[in-house]
Amino acid sequence: MARGKLRIHLGAAPGVGKTYAMLSEAHRRVERGTDCVVAFVEHHGRPRTEVLLHGLEQVPRRELEYRGGIFPEMDLDAVLARRPQVALVDELAHTNIPGSRNAKRWQDVEELLAAGIDVISTVDIQHLESLGDVVESITGVRQQETVPDEVVRRAGQVELVDMTPEALRRRMAHGNIYQPDKVDAALSNYFRPGNLTALRELALLWVADRADAYLTQYRSEHRVSRIWGSRERIVVGLTGGPEGRTLIRRGARLAEKGAGGEVLAVYIARSDGLTSASPKELALQRTLVEDLGGTFHHVVGDDIPAALLAFARGVNATQIVLGSSRRKTWQYVFGPGVGATVARESGPDLDVHIVTHDEVAKGRGLPVARGARLGRSRRVWGWIAGVAGPPLLAALLNTVDLGLANDMLLFLALTVAAALLGGLLPALASAAVGSLLLNYFYTPPLHRWAIADPKNIVAIVIFVAVGVAVASVVDLAARRTHQAARLRAESEILSFLAGNVLRGETGLEDLLERVRETFGMESAALLERAGDVEPWTCAGRVGRGRPIERPDQADVDMPVGDHMALALTGRVLPAEDRRVLAAFAAQAAVVLDRRRLREEAGRARTLAEGNRIRTALLAAVSHDLRTPLAGIKAAVTSLRSEDVEWSEEDRAELLEGIEEGADRLDHLVGNLLDMSRLQTGTVTPLIREIDLDEVVPMALGGVPEGSAGLDVPETLPMVAVDPGLLERAMANLVENAVKYSPPGAPVLVAASALADRVEVRVVDRGPGVPDEAKERIFEPFQRYGDAPRGAGVGLGLAVARGFAEAMGGTLNAEDTPGGGLTMVLTLRAAGTRPELHPAAEPERQAS
Which residue, of 246, 351, 421, 571, has the fewest CB within 10 Å? Predict the structure, then answer.
């Protein structure tokens, strides 16, 4: 069965019109005769969106009971049984009510796609999993409902539903998104112009990257080598010299001039002797280009201009930035240089910028090497000198008489020239042709293939031997130069790689991408298996080539031990490259082991935290329970003693001590039991709608009279909470605030409504808590500062936060203006979904 196709309407924020666009698309398809049904769409009371639902078949929803309420969800089984061609599923990142088949709606969509049903869905940019930290830094709100980026990237179509921040805020002000009583709070919080502008930029950039990936795939599949200037990409060619930083900054300035400009710095390690790159300098340049928002690439290539142009065309670059040559004037006899060659061969679709710098014409720093062995042009000239040179020289010498000795020296000089140019074989050819010509034209008897004087035989033999010796030395030197240059390039790559891996800066996918990029392959994968007969599994893969399930399916495979292999597709590597590949494979195994050790360390930390909690619990039981027990026992023993006649005042004092100790024990044991319930996940709130003034005043009963004030307006909306848990949480908060408040400064408990939530603030004027400790005070068995041992075991705030989160709320600490600490308890207003915090997830209110 063919897999269904997924189409996603992506928006920057709630209210831009994603659901409206999805329903409009559904009507167009129905008009064309497509079998299209509404699996789940929320109109959120918007008349225009609700009108579009008319005329579309809707699959009845499934109702689930959760925490005392009834909530509708998509009936996945009913949609699968209906088997439409297209299903509309709103809010892809939605969290399903517990009791559903899948935890997330995108998992429901995956089942529909696997059944061959096309799906049209919606999602906001803030719900993409990889952007969680970015969105939180922009809005101050952490998105709790997310969808993996890969799910969205696999969609056949991603359509951006865009709207300017000004237009969106007008829609909000006109009541087209939220109810009128929620508009002011929304405009002053989540829907601020800065927030909307930043989210819109994120959405535009994400869709642009998606389009770029499509373009790259299309160019690869259709073998398009010509550059399409759809986006400014600046390739900065680096040699590893100090001028690289100047070139990177110039490339960054060029990229800033074009919309969506991108900088790619590339260092090509070649074998023909470019100035040796300093690993330290390359590391500095890599850091600089990444700080400027670009990427750094390290590629091996024998021909620098060809490799640079191939890289630029491969990434669809539009401009190349190179530095002016550092060679001195006399060094240009060896060729025009990289910059001139790249400019000549770049063609009309690539602009080449030659940038001046302080190192121009100061020399390369190392002697110029003459190529990877001997270049093609040199070999051609060597053969010309070795084969055509001797006849031309003979024709010239036939016009003058210089004597046999001079003739032999001239032929020997020609043989040496052929050796220097072309190596061994052209020199041998020159020696053979030259010796025949010397024998025929210049040694008696002339014009015959014979030698009369034995001394001439010795001279010709020496001539041939000298030519062969010189050619051998030249060829050996070229081979050694090639080997040294290649080993230098390999050592640079390995040292740079080892440094990154040892510092833990390279992840497995990053390392595989480096392997693929270095050797110019289509894909790279690390395969492993548990045993000799077990199937292979993929631990990590990058690239766009065909999937690799076994090492024998790859073009190149490098074993790593008995049960692991690095597999590459794209081309067959020469044997000399396998040494570097083996080092990459070993490093990949190290990175994989490090990742698994990190995961095991995380599990070990979890176990250690559990042990710490248990140890603290035992310490609390052994000390904090013993103290009130000892006081109670001493008071009871004193009262039962027949040796002492207690007065009424003494007896009352002892009984008061017993009562205080019992209350203290009751409070302590209650907190311990509450914390154990929270840690074992057995807290099941019974949610119902109540007024705050029914519960909050009761929480103040355990503190001295006059130590706390109450401000709960009667106009507040009802909240959906568990009254018992709310009372316990509020009692702990008030007790903690009173404990740290100075005499004469009563604690204030105030409540207010904000959008779809109600906030209860417990304000004290105590010493306060620094920002770095605000989260730590909510951990179990934590007492801030110099709190005395008798102040409790440090569970009150931990229990309060646990109860708040169990009811679908939050508890955080803020500074009190003028000094002190304010505990902010946020609760859900009646009628909102339990999974949703309105400030964090506005998607529920507007799609």
Answer: 571
